[in-house]
Specification:
disordered N terminus; about 180 residues; mainly alpha; 5 helices; about 0% strand; elongated
């Protein structure tokens, strides 16, 4: 099976846990363009795992909010019942058995990439922190109410800022698929 190495960070919509550090286990001083196929695979697996972990919390919050919203279609349902629907959806999503294994598909990094693995790690970690900030507005189930749904109190998550470390990485590795989120 051919492994492809894209910096698949489009999925980084992040499980809220600040102070992120990201480590691929590959020598941080090594140029991304010169990593071996085994190192590229390790980087890909590390990004996939980090992405999965970052997505879990906000995805489950969104599942809860969706369940709350659907339950709110019943005009006689009380807030406690709606919050219960939210909690059930959140808990079902958060259950360890709900985690599907990821099989990352990555493209080899461009040989012309002069960014180091350390610069890539900084970018991924910084992007994770920006995702956390953007998604921190997603309310917990116990903070939801019919009034918040009707009144538009629920904030839409802001756009994820593009960290300077990622801008620098893109400059040094223009062929890498590191999208702006």
């Amino acid at each position: 099976m051919k492994r492809r190495f894209t910096f698949a960070l489009t999925a980084l919509l992040g499980a809220a846990c600040g102070g992120d550090t990201f480590d691929t286990g590959v020598d941080e001083g090594k140029s991304v363009g010169s990593v071996s196929p085994d190192e590229a695979s390790r980087i890909c697996e590390a990004i996939a795992g980090y992405t999965r972990d970052k997505l879990r919390e906000p995805s489950c919050r969104l599942a809860g909010i969706a369940a709350f919203t659907v339950a709110a279609l019943n005009p006689t349902a009380a807030d406690a019942e709606l919050q219960g629907a939210c909690r059930k959806a959140y808990d079902d999503c958060s259950a360890p058995e709900a985690t599907a294994p990821m099989s990352p598909s990555c493209n080899p990094p461009p040989g012309s990439c002069t960014a180091t693995v350390g610069e890539l790690e900084a970018c991924v970690g910084d992007l994770g922190q920006e995702v956390d900030k953007a998604l921190d507005v997603l309310p917990a189930c116990n903070a939801l109410s019919r009034a918040s749904l009707r009144g538009g109190d629920m904030q839409r998550p802001p756009a994820v800022a593009d960290p300077a470390s990622c801008q620098s990485f893109r400059t040094k590795c223009p062929g890498a698929a590191l999208p702006r989120l």
